[in-house]
Predict the structure of 6-phospho-beta-glucosidase.
Amino acid sequence: MGLNPNFLWGGATAANQSEGGYNLGNRGLSNVDLLPMGKIREEVMAGKVKMLDFDPNYYYPAKQAIDMYQHYLDDIKLFAEMGFKTYRMSISWTRIFPNGDEETPNEEGLKFYENIFLQLRKYNIEPLVTLAHFDVPVELIKKYGSWRNRKMVALFENYCQTVFTRYKGLVKYWLTFNEINMILHAPFLGAGLVFEDEDHEQQVKYQAVHHQLIASALATKIAHEVDPENKVGCMLAGGNYYPYSCRPEDYAKAIEKDRESFLFIDVQARGAYPNYALKKFQRENIHIIMERGDLELLKSHTVDFISFSYYSSRVVTTDDSVTHETAGNIFKSVKNPYLKSSEWGWQIDPLGLRSALNVMYDRYQKPLFIVENGLGAIDRPDENGNIEDDYRIDYLRQHIKAFKAAVEEDGVELMGYTTWGCIDLVSATKGEMSKRYGFIYVDCDNEGKGTRKRSKKKSFYWYQKVIQSNGEDLD
Ligand code: BG6
């Protein structure tokens, strides 16, 4: 019993939510730099409002974020002090290829990540690197319309080839597209898509999905060719749907809703579009243009493991009279009357994590990796400046218990667990700093003001103990 001694405990961040330095080191602009604070953010993320340059009327939190660009050495030291075995981070594509389509990569960007990986190696922390955590070079959006265009595949391939080659021996675990299913719910955020009036939106989205799936298979292929030691995973915004009632219609609807997300992993892990997807495309008049060899490519280069984020389960019903929705989540869901919510209305369901692990393991029979989980909460320093974040500890404790049960009692194969925002960072959906997930507090507010000084919260010491005991001591 107990978790495997090599279990990869750690934490996760993403470049655009932590690095800042948006114009340093020859970096180019990304879609994720252009997500403003405020109400309009949601419409920009959805591709409904086109914002391909900064508008002086808005504040853009990714520009500076928590300035990890200049603090990474000390931040990694703190991760090491917590005992991290792994650190999940992402490479910003535009640090390596500022416009996305240059002939030669930007050495300054390559060096920046190399230094991070070397620092991680120094502390025996295994990097887990996301190739695209929502970011797309703005120039490629302007030139090609982003992932709606097949040209993106070759450009992404080139980027992957470059980083796999350069970081051979330094990085072994890779993820292709963060929350690949996000493209359906927030298409500009997930894939740089902006819609024109004449667009058949579903057609554009699923064509872009196909391009990302091909790009992901190619990335897997190249990663294995460059170094057979490389392990590549896909990444899903996870959490299953519950039927709101036991009416058969609600159950059938829950299956249908889950398939919207499983479609991606079915292709990435099993190597083919499932029949239900092909039927859906037919029914909804979606015609995916493929090139010769695409289907073979998908078949031959499936992922080595499946990673996912888990914050909550979801609920669905066909009954129109049930109208109460959860607040503020990109994945709109009917409110579950049996669950409590975070301050942002995200419902808290540790058992749902155990269920999600079981459903996915049954379906794919591949190793799983929880690469995001955590509680976004407002932290209020006490009179001595300390943060006693028992609410966060409690949330994490319940979720760790749940995944341990999945491993120890159900036999699920789980490689590791990286909590989201191990150091406070900018919220993806809200752009706020006040939605904090970290073990490490960062002095920075919603307007970007503050010293960006780091300090340890109570959860820092708690997680240190959890890791030290390999998940046995959760008190
Ligand atoms: C996931 C993303 O959707 O959830 C992260 O991969 C994001 O980038 C996280 O930050 C939590 O969402 P939010 O909106 O609370 O930051």
